[in-house]
Amino acid sequence: MAYYVPSTEDEQLEMMRAIGVSSWDDLYAGLPAGLLLEDLNIPAGLSEYGARVMMEGLASENRIFPSIFRGAGAYNHYIPSLVKQITSREEFVTSYTPYQAEISQGTLQSIFEFQTMMCELTGLDASNASIYDGASAAASAAAMCRARNRAVVLISEAANPRVISVVETYCYAAGAGVKKIPARDGVTDGESLAAMLDDSVACVYIEQPNYFGLIEDASELGRIAHSGGAKFVMGVNPIAAAVLRTPGECGADVAVGEAQPLGMPLSFGGPYLGFMTASSDMARHLPGRIVGETVDVDGKRAFVLTLQAREQHIRRERASSNICSNQALCALTASVYLTVMGPHGLRQVADHCFSKAHYAAEQISAVKGFELAHEGEFFHEFVTSCPMDSESLLRRLESRGILGGLPVDGGILWCVTEMNTREEIDELTAILREAVRG
Fold first, then answer.
1. pTM for the whole thing?
2. Which residue ranges form the domains of the chain, and what is each CATH number?
3. What span, in angstroms and rounded, lies between the C-alpha atoms of 361 and 415?
4. Cβ(339)–Cβ(377) below 8 Å
5. Are 275 and 261 in contact (CB under 8 A)?
6. Between β-strands 411-415 and 381-384, what pairing exists: parallel, antiparallel or unpaired?
7. 3-state class of 207 per DSSP?
8. What pLDDT does residue 4 have?
């Protein structure tokens, strides 16, 4: 039986004597009444084998669905085996923050390559690294767009509700306002946006595709935002970005998103990776770290921390972000995935998502009561009405090994990726018909 403790009892007593106390009770004697708990109710320690048995028992309760039709921000894509093979190498797993550039060239290069790929994918000039997830990237983008006289964020009602919530939390803490732009027919209403713009608006945030899977008229919304003097921020799906117009082409000042589709498994919610790119005039406002390429004293290729916008080190009151960790391993995963897939492979994935989703929408909407909720074009997600209790329908699907869509106002949000076969879609449709018949 093995126990792991940070220090022995004798060492603990020696440390207490050094500070003038003789017991744990003496150490905490000055605490106000009620702060020190008498009984923590902590179970007895386990052996290594006992802990393993317990954890395996917990893990056995997990349900892995062979067929998934749910997205809403986290997506089931195929991950080539080479991605895990490369990123599991010890030198990548153990690397962390590149404080000393001269001995962190490998880490810096991997971050630089990630930034380069994100710029190519979004069509913008500069990228950072080390954003925790897509939602915090959106909130950080809103913060970097704020100016002294412009602090209000306009965010589309058609954006992911969880992203909206995080943006609201960040803005509340900063004393900044958030207003929602109404949606019409499932997409952001340009007329409402134009009416909401004034001198207090710092930026406008929309998603492409949006939460309902629909493709927004991003160029027009960006034009409206700029006409009111606001910055234009786009949240983008990186797989869809392979076939849609880039944020740069749509006039975005900042592009953000969740990079989980780029080689990271669903993993019950993380760790994930936010990405963030910006136009050249916004580059110095990017939070996190920016790695650049240069040459050393011998003229050889080298990498440096070009910008490290972490004002909280020395000027907390002026900090626009609290990002201080390092997402380099997740960023490397995205880079390896993009390298393995290549531009052609990534476009193929996007094409499969698009075509299979449209086949699924056609089949599902042919079932009585499951009409498409919106007429607009979509990428790989869509909403249908549901003629019965959605939760009971989803339980029926789960009993057949299918994780169905996500219940939303007005019906169910379905998602189809390259992982869903025609047979799976047909089986889903057949079960829906059974449910309708009762």
1. 0.87
2. 9-59 (no CATH), 67-76+348-437 (3.90.1150.10), 81-337 (3.40.640.10)
3. 10
4. no
5. no
6. antiparallel
7. strand
8. 55
